[in-house]
Amino acid sequence: MMSTDPLADVTYLCGNDEVLESEYCDRPFSDLILAFLSELSLKILSDSEAKKYADLATFAFYCRRSNLEKMKAGISCIDSRLGWGRALHIAPSNIPINFAYSFLFGLLAGNSNVVRLPSKSSPQIAVFCDLIYVVLENPRYLLIKKSNAFVRFSRESVFLKNNIAHFDALLIWGGDHTVRDIRELPRAPRSIEIAFSDRYSFAVISADEVLSLGNEDLEKLCARFYNDTYLVDQNACSSPNLISWQGLPESIEPAKARFWGCLEEYLRSHYELNAVHSMDKQIKILKYLDRYPVEMNIVAYGPAIVVATLNDISVFNHELTGFFGLFFELDHVPLEGVIGVVNNKYQTLSYFGMDPHEIRNMLFDLRCKGIDRVVPIGSALDIGIVWDGYDLIGTLSRIVSIR
Fold first, then answer.
1. 123-148 burial, b for 16+ CB within 10 Å, e for fewer?
2. What is the reported pTM?
3. What pLDDT shows up at residue 8?
């Protein structure tokens, strides 16, 4: 299953260099693609080892047949589309299973795919590659087997430099530095690119709505917030780093105390902060305090929750990032004021107790250059065929016009 090309410093975890000769392109959501992904979904969901990893199970549930058919129904001009050809995916390391979604969208769009796996190993990656290898052994999927591969190579790879010009599409995940490095390499003149650069996300919460919740519903809200943040230690670009509280001062203070207090209680049985991560967080807090000695008020609601309240909207920027339970908050700025300082580094706005249509109208009325997603708290990590403002299927396939 695993092979290494010593001349090209690349290791194939699934597939081989046959993929570099592939001329495969297909209709998006073709019967063959849907059958293959449906079988892969069932294989993952029935595997005892895969069941240990919630993110792997979530991926399998996402690419079940019924969900793919639903997605297909929403694709415009689908009968006039074909994939571009060979797609190269540079996957990020912050979210282990992200590479599988990148592959999924490349395949659904009708392309052959070479997926560069994260340099950091994880058990989910190994399980996925083992299972997809088994499914690809079905003779029915020989065409897909020959035209897709999962590989590892370094940033300075000879393989990358020698072959990038042979790809028709590039999906670059991993931040600004990675995007800049890839763009320095010579590419095919007609290649298309989707670049996922560093992004920042925040949440908006209505204080009155938090105060109106019963204890059970408040715990559900905290569980959804936990899924957006602590589940990935705030590493996802869509995880909120800042909370903007909306309402009157007499509502905001008790709402904050109630929300953070409930979250702290929830974390006791769902999250363990180790000593190294705690130290890293403390060092980051000290750096922020040194930089903004007057503009921040630090409050610890427990070992796993530290909140820095910003006393000045001018301090708010996309460099205020947290991890392991470090958050920032604004409690005296109307939403219009928050959106007014947003630039194209901002990706997801999560909300609770707010009208998403009013938020959308505000974004358009203010001609906001950033924010590509407005989702309820609990859905920040839900990837879809529209991501970072890109229509992934539309971009990764071409329209053949007939007149």
1. ebbebbbbbbbebbeeeebeebbbbb
2. 0.91
3. 63
